[in-house]
């Protein structure tokens, strides 16, 4: 049977049936105090994304800028954050467990998760630190692996532009102890010179009945072999067909692998429901820093593990949840330059060949949380939560301290453009409160309001990968205070999901006029998000979402190279408008067609608001036809009008820089389904 695309918003009649896990338990959407977007399996399969950007444009308040290959820069109720302060602003989860340890984020880390195989992807916009701790600052994305009891299997083959091909399988083994396996492999020749990638992702899961409860165990992995293409330069360079396909750094690459093992036991202990989630994680990555003078090689990795626990007790008019989370990690980072730096005498002297950094960090995070809900009327529920988290880093420098060459000799022109601090320990203690309320209005409407604080502890690279002459990076945890007011409602043929938000961010990390990472930045974030659906006819339906937001600086400072941060200016890479719409035609169970429009508004490229990217609009077309009961043919035509766009734009070092976007591309998929 042809799988139909779900609404981008959910009809009110279905709200009671939709379950989200963002509250660290399975919760009907009607009982969730706050915003939540869930992309289900049908929608994920129908979109058939080759990059997570194509999928998350369907969620209001969310935009993911594509980088080279599978790299990405997300934004959730925020600008697209890059550079100092960017890492750790968003929490990425797999089955409710963070994909990486606290303080060791990768801003591109969405590529590590098997989104192509997911049963559901949930997105929470705004801070979620009360339940999930550090890094859930601007929002979170939770990728849920398929249910092992899913009775359908699938196998697919896909071919596309630029020598792209992909195979995927999702197979279950029924029985008293059901299991499920999934694997996807993609090979892309790249639309730019020497810029293809090969990537494999997979999972295995099993459910076991235990005495007193249920046990789910899963393992997942990813492996990426990517040839990387960097920026092209010059105003409107992305409009030049020749430059679009050029790769100025053909030797650049990113090789990354990750493995995760997790489990979830649910049972009862006395009057309490108990949820326990132990986990182990590992990652290794090598990539050429083609954007730095000398193009050094970075190697990093980690081994981490821990356990998440939650107790829950319900009464007629209230519920109480509390728990303890523990996470330990062993992290390493090395940076080595294998040849002399090309360019001026200054660059050659201050960026010498040899090893620049080599350090290890042991981290331990311990957190306790409590959350309660109270019925205060027939249709009114109040909630309150609090999390206290303590984080400790133990840093060991494996080289000589200071900003010398690796053999101890000094660099010219006042020293090397890097500094290695001496061994040290750093601790951070943060509190994240949350207050909320929801009102049930009749049978089909829910109004909610939230006050919440999010926090982000300084990342290891911000503390220990210092700039020239900087001996200590004295940073505070970033915090964000948020208020949101939302509404979910609809009727038999329409639905509406909207939210207003206002947030104030403090102690943002930025780079000052001497090139040092310092805290003390402030910004404001206000906006409105809408998602709606309308059944126009028996065969036609419309789903759309849109966001208008303003992200502004709330401090004044002169930073590196004279760049000025001025209160009231737009934060760079923060469009006021973004949205998408899809018109769907379903005349039968065998045939389906959808036309999608994706819009990104103009945004400034610098803090002074002097340079701008004009934004873009593109159209995508998708057609599905069921050749038989279990055989589905899908054709996707992206960027139908072949419009020249930039996936990412900025202005730095006196020049415009762009990651050019892909032009018109056709993909054909054949998918076999078996019940």
General description of the model:
The radius of gyration is 25 Å and the shape is globular. 5% of the residues lie in helices and 55% in strands. The longest helix is centred in the first third of the chain and has 7 residues, at 41-47. The strands form seven sheets. The chain has a 22-stranded antiparallel barrel. The protein is mainly beta. The chain has a single domain (12-674), classed as Maltoporin, Chain A, CATH 2.40.170.20. It has six helices and 38 strands.
List the helices and strands and how they pair.
Layout: E1 19-20, E2 27-28, E3 37-40, H1 41-47, H2 52-56, E4 62-66, E5 72-76, E6 90-94, E7 97-98, E8 120-125, H3 129-132, E9 139-144, E10 153-160, E11 164-173, E12 179-188, E13 197-210, E14 213-227, E15 232-233, H4 241-245, E16 253-269, E17 272-288, E18 297-314, E19 318-337, H5 345-350, E20 354-375, E21 380-397, E22 424-441, E23 445-456, H6 460-464, E24 478-490, E25 494-511, E26 517-535, E27 540-553, E28 557-558, E29 564-565, E30 577-585, E31 591-600, E32 603-604, E33 612-613, E34 616-628, E35 631-638, E36 646-652, E37 655-660, E38 665-674
Parallel strand pairs: 6-9
Antiparallel strand pairs: 1-2, 3-8, 4-5, 6-7, 8-9, 10-11, 10-38, 11-12, 12-13, 13-14, 14-16, 15-37, 16-17, 17-18, 18-19, 19-20, 20-21, 21-22, 22-23, 23-24, 24-25, 25-26, 26-27, 27-30, 28-29, 30-31, 31-34, 32-33, 34-35, 35-38, 36-37
């Amino acid at each position: 049977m042809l799988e139909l695309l779900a609404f981008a918003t959910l009809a009110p009649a279905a709200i009671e049936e939709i379950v989200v896990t963002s509250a660290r338990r399975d919760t009907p959407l009607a009982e969730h105090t706050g915003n939540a977007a869930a992309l289900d399996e049908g929608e994920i399969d129908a979109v058939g994304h080759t990059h997570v950007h194509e999928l998350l444009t369907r969620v209001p308040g969310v935009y993911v800028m594509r980088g080279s290959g599978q790299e990405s820069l997300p934004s959730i109720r925020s600008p697209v954050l890059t550079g100092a302060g960017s890492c750790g602003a968003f929490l990425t989860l797999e089955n409710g467990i963070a994909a990486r340890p606290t303080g060791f984020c990768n801003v591109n880390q969405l590529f590590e998760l098997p989104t192509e195989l997911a049963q559901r992807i949930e997105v929470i916009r705004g801070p979620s630190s009360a339940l999930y701790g550090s890094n859930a600052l601007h929002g979170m994305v939770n990728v849920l692996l398929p249910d092992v009891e899913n009775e359908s299997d699938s196998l697919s083959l896909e071919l596309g532009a630029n020598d792209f091909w992909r195979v995927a399988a999702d197979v279950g083994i029924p029985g008293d102890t059901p299991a499920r396996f999934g694997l996807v492999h993609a090979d892309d020749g790249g639309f730019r010179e020497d810029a293809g990638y090969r990537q494999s992702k997979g999972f295995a899961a099993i459910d076991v009945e235990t005495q007193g409860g249920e046990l789910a165990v899963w393992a997942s992995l990813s492996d990426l072999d990517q040839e990387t293409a960097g920026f092209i330069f010059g105003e409107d360079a992305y409009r030049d067909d020749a430059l679009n396909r050029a790769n100025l750094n053909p030797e650049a690459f990113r090789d990354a692998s990750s493995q995760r093992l997790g489990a979830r036991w649910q049972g009862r202990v006395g009057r309490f429901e108990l949820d326990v989630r132990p986990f182990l994680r590992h990652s290794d990555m090598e990539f050429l820093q083609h954007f730095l003078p000398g193009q050094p090689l970075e190697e990093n990795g980690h081994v981490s593990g821990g356990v998440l626990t939650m107790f829950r007790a319900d009464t007629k008019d209230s519920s109480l949840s509390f728990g303890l989370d523990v996470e330990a990690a062993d992290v390493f980072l090395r940076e080595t330059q294998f040849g002399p730096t090309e360019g001026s005498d200054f660059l050659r002297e201050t960026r010498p060949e040899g090893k620049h950094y080599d350090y290890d960090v042991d981290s331990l995070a311990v957190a306790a949380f409590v959350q309660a809900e109270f019925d205060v009327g027939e249709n009114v529920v109040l909630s309150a939560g609090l999390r206290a988290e303590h984080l400790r880093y133990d840093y060991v420098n494996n080289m000589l301290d200071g900003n010398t060459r690796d053999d101890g000799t000094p660099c010219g022109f006042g020293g090397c453009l890097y500094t290695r601090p001496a061994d040290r320990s750093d601790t951070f203690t943060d509190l994240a409160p949350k207050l909320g309320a929801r009102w049930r209005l009749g049978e089909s409407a829910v109004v909610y309001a939230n006050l919440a604080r999010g926090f982000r502890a300084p990342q290891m690279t911000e503390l220990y990968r210092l700039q020239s002459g900087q001996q200590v990076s004295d940073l505070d945890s970033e915090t964000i205070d948020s208020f949101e007011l939302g509404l979910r409602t609809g009727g038999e043929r329409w639905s509406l999901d909207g939210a207003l938000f206002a947030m104030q961010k403090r102690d943002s990390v930025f780079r000052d006029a001497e090139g040092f990472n310092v805290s003390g930045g402030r910004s404001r974030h206000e906006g409105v998000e809408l998602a709606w659906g309308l059944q126009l006819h028996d065969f036609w339906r419309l789903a759309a979402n849109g966001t208008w937001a303003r992200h502004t600086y709330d401090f004044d400072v002169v930073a590196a190279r004279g760049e000025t941060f001025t209160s009231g200016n737009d934060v760079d890479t923060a469009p006021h408008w973004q949205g998408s719409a899809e018109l769907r035609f379903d005349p039968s169970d065998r045939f389906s067609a959808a036309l999608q429009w994706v819009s990104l508004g103009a945004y400034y490229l610098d803090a002074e608001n002097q340079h701008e990217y004009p934004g873009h609009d593109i159209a995508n077309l998708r057609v599905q036809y069921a050749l038989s009961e279990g055989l589905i043919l899908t054709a996707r035509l992206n960027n139908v009008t072949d419009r020249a766009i930039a996936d990412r734009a900025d202005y730095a070092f006196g020049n415009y820089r762009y990651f050019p976007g892909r032009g018109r591309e056709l993909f054909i998929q054949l998918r076999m389904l078996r019940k």
